[in-house]
Amino acid sequence: MREQQFDVVIIGGGPAGLAAAVSASQGVERVLVIERDRELGGILQQCIHNGFGLHRFKEELTGPGYAARYIKMVEERSNITVMLDTMVLSVSEDKTVIGVNPTDGIFKVSAKAIIFAMGCRERTRGAIRTPGTRPAGVLTAGAAQRMVNMEGYLPGEKVVILGSGDIGLIMARRMSLEGTHVEAVLEIMPYSNGLTRNVVQCLNDYDIPLHLGHTILKIHGKHRITGVTCAKVDETMKPIPGTEFYLECDCLLLSVGLIPENELSREMGIQMDNLTSGPVVDQLRQTNIPGFFAAGNVVHVHDLVDFVSEEGEIAGKYATYYANHTLGAVEKVISVKTADGVRTSVPQIVRLYQDDSQPVRLYMRVAKPERKVTLAIMNGEQVVLEKKLAVAKPGEMIVVDVPGDKLKTCGDKITVLLKR
Length: 420
Prior knowledge:
The mean pLDDT is 94. Strand 14 and strand 15 form a beta hairpin. Strands 1, 2, 5, 6, 7, 8 and 19 form a 7-stranded mixed β-sheet that branches. The protein has a 5-stranded parallel β-sheet with strand order 10-17-11-12-13. A 5-stranded mixed β-sheet has the order 22-20-27-24-25. Helix content is 21%, strand content 36%. The protein is globular, with a radius of gyration of 22 Å. By secondary structure, it is of the alpha/beta class. It has 3 domains: 1-121 and 258-327, 3-Layer(bba) Sandwich (FAD/NAD(P)-binding domain), CATH 3.50.50; 124-256, FAD/NAD(P)-binding domain, CATH 3.50.50; 330-420, Immunoglobulin-like.
């Protein structure tokens, strides 16, 4: 079996993996990026719409345009090796990676630090257990996006979309632009799960109806989908009898959430967060196993790719510190808890290192839409930081920087919550 040694190995060549590689290349001699697709860029390559890079590059780019910027940075650095069309089979705690590809067959790679950047995958029909037959024409929104934007195929002419996640909203617009008729977008929650700008630009601008508090009861059709039975739901998400209606369609797109791709992480025994479905990480993006870092959608699902790249840079930078044995000693460990309206917060742990008082950036999501609330970070009864929010939505991440000197005076736990 062929064996190689690298300082930092990054699993995943999407936006998080590319940013991590560029960042790590500045601190170590040998960096390896392993990507299972035939090209770098990850999900960005099929996102041909604009809206990327406003934070990172201060200009509006398409997905492939954003990816191209990072791919160019990777290609310009001679100490970054890229393996495409390569599947990672296993990762062990001694930082040995077993992979396979058509060129090398099965190979082994040893590393000083490993970064997980595998991204996330879509929930399927099986995950939401929609009753009915199993005809052709039922796809996830991401699969349809790749089919339309990269393969040049149209999955249907009369479309219904279940779920108002960002991919579903964007595909509603995309299918309309391709000449199909989008009958409706159905969302089981009483609010949209996508960015406000996507609801406006993708649904309102194209007169596509959005039915909030609705779901699909049954899928009809033998060989090809012919329609769906829909109904309104109550506060407990159960269908309300008498509210059923039928929508004729030949294509159903599912945009019902994303799941971080953590099979490798779980096999290793890395501690997971049940709410984010990703690893528990500190502000350096290090997991509970030393030398293993995670960044991007594998940690928690992001709304903006700019934040994914930011996390990748953090993981890449501190993975080099670990590889070079310059991370320093931990002075204090603070756990970050959520309460009263805040659903998730990343990082879940803050490790304060000696001679390091840099601010810690927290990424949070609320449980339901709120107006005119105050986000508070509490150390027991003491307020560490407060931020007033005009609007808070589950689909839009809240980002707050907590000064390092304030954290040093905290106990072993801080709580993030909403004050109304």
